[in-house]
Amino acid sequence: MLVTGDIHALSSAVSGPVALPDSPGFAEETFAFNAATVHRPDVVLGAADAQDVAAAVKWAAERRFPVSVQSTGHGAELAIDGGLLINTRRLQDMHVDPVERTARVGAGVKWRTVLEASVPHGLLGLHGSSTDVGVVGYTLGGGLPVLGRAHGFAADHVRSMDVVTADGELRRIDADAEAELFSLMRGGKGNFGIVTALEFSLFPFSDFYGGGIIYPGADAAMILAAFRQWLATLPDDASPSISLLRLPDMDFVPAPLRGQFVVHLRFAFLGNREDGDALLAPMRAVSIPLMDTAGPMGYLDVDQVHMDPADPLPFADGGALLKDFDDETVADLLELAGDGSGCPLLLVEIRPLGGALGNAAAVPDAVSGRDAAFLLFLLGFKMPPIAEAVSASIRGILAAMAPHSTGYTLVNFHGEPGDEADRARAWSPAVYERMRSAKSTYDPGNLLRFGHAITGTPAAG
Ligand SMILES: Cc1cc2nc3c(=O)[nH]c(=O)nc-3n(C[C@H](O)[C@H](O)[C@H](O)COP(=O)(O)OP(=O)(O)OC[C@H]3O[C@@H](n4cnc5c(N)ncnc54)[C@H](O)[C@@H]3O)c2cc1C
Fold first, then answer.
1. Could you tell me if the CB of 153 is within 6 A of ligand 1?
2. Which of 235, 310, 314, 442 has the most CB atoms within 10 Å of its CB?
């Protein structure tokens, strides 16, 4: 238990604000984008810089006090209960090097900020469906990009990182310095330390063609069948995905679509109008769209591809890697989540993997699931009157789809972490065992025990 002297010691070791549950600023520092999750640490630090993170972790280590980290709260799957929460949102340093084609960002930087600096140089980063997500949390979870089939996982392209390990030491690690830690941090999530800065590759591009087509939900069976055939015709620099959407009557939904059940095809392609139109033509012919926004697009509008909600909302989610998206898989999914199924979820999404996502990283990392063909991802709003039904539906659909799954997940799409066996499903067994061993080395006191945390290998003897 903390006493006043402990709080004084923390406050005098750092320059950022320290807040207790009854102090002003506590709610702001602990607030998560996923508003269904309310964090209740014993104390929160708004870290001002990397030295603050190191001093705070050292402070916690001396007291064997658990530590957690949050940047945006997009990945707030489980409430943090007790301990010290370090909020990294003030770590906003960023440098884009257009010659080396790299970016170096502080742990509070979001993808939008990177793109605003890199796109004018004709360079893009491997962000996901929403550029409001934090670069570091996303990349440590592997980072499945919108253009993943072209370039692979974001974690594969990290050059170096600055990390404060559980002993409070700030280390710069890369493929040569602390190679095993560097390997396991990329895809191993926040299990081994708190990253204060990340350096990663950027990719040149010229034309971008993106957007989406929204079809009536009644045509879902026909559209999913056509989608599967069409995928085989696409080059790797085209990354599509498709979802069944039950759109709420809310402001972030375009007015004509509010309250409707629809199918949403998303399309992102590194090419020009002529080639993009030619690739998309078969899907434009399959049914009469309610909306078609696909075409040449300024890259900074890339959030229009997936149209994720931009404002905080309460949600629950979950996912599974699929072996295939064959007739039987499609039929089972439609029975569970199609028209007339009573499914309460906002989104039932299929993201094709393959292309560069199937290649091993040049510098090996912890990202697993490269053998999977598709990702199934489910998300629902935890709002009355469906709040209770949402989590049950996610569990039910994942259980019913288990025969089509590889049995594994991607950590960024895993959803609420369950028991040890459930958590382990985010990595291959070989990687998981290496992670347990590294946990014993880098966090023997299990200070970093929140979120999708694993436990170390018990000491021999
Ligand atoms: C709208 C939306 C769209 C998304 N799209 C994609 C997508 O296309 N592809 C994809 O791969 N993922 C996607 N995600 C998942 C997202 O990448 C994860 O939720 C990720 O963890 C968010 O990171 P964050 O830092 O923004 O969130 P936070 O909630 O702040 O952090 C989540 C977790 O990341 C870890 N973490 C964060 N910062 C640090 C740090 N400095 N050091 C160590 N660990 C840290 C911690 O474990 C923390 O609990 C999406 C999520 C949302 C809500």
1. no
2. 442
The residue whose CA is least distant from atom 47 of ligand 1 is 190
Give the chain's mean pLDDT. 96
pLDDT of 76-123, one tens digit each? 999 999 999 999 999 999 999 999 999 999 999 999 999 999 999 999
Q: Is the CB of 76 under 6 A from ligand 1?
A: yes
What percentage of the chain exceeds 90 in pLDDT? 94
Does some domain include residue 449? no
Asked if residue 143 is part of any domain, the answer here is yes
**Cα 246 to averaged position of ligand 1 atoms, centre (Å):** 24
Least confident of 2-11, 59-68, 357-366, 404-413: 2-11
290 C-alpha to ligand 1 centroid (Å) = 32
- Asked whether residue 21 falls in the same domain as residue 127, the answer is no
Does the beta carbon of 139 sit less than 6 angstroms from any atom of ligand 1? no
**Hey, what are 159's tokens?**
């050059």
Q: How far is the CA of 262 from the centre of ligand 1 (A)?
A: 27
Residue spans of beta strands (DSSP E) within 202-260? 203-204, 209-216, 238-246
Give domain status of residue 443, yes or no. Answer: no
Compute the C-alpha angle 100/101/103, nearest 5°.
105
Contact between 281 and 213 under an 8 Å Cβ cutoff? The reply is no
- Which helix (H) or strand (E) segment holds residue 281: the answer is helix 273-284
Domain residue limits at 63: 4-87
Q: Using the predicted structure, report yes or no on whether residue 460 has a pLDDT greater than 60.
A: no
Distance from the alpha carbon of residue 142 to the mean position of ligand 1, in angstroms: 10
Q: How far is the CA of 286 from the centre of ligand 1 (A)?
A: 35
CATH number of the domain at 121, please.
Answer: 3.30.465.10
Amino acid at residue number 446: N
128 Cβ below 6 A of ligand 1: yes
76-105 burial: b if 16+ Cβ within 10 Å, else e = bbbebeebbbbbbbbbeebebeeeebbbbb
Q: For the segment 231-274, what is each residue's pLDDT rounded down to a tens digit?
A: 999 999 999 999 999 998 888 888 889 999 999 999 999 999 99
192 within ligand 1 shell (Cβ under 6 A): no
pLDDT on residue 249: 87
Same domain, 170 and 228: no
Number of structural domains the chain divides into: 3
Domain boundary among 28, 63, 87: 87
Q: Is 77 in the same domain as 146? A: no
417 lines ligand 1 (CB under 6 A): no
Give the position, in ligand 1's atom list, of the atom nearest the Cα of 76.
29
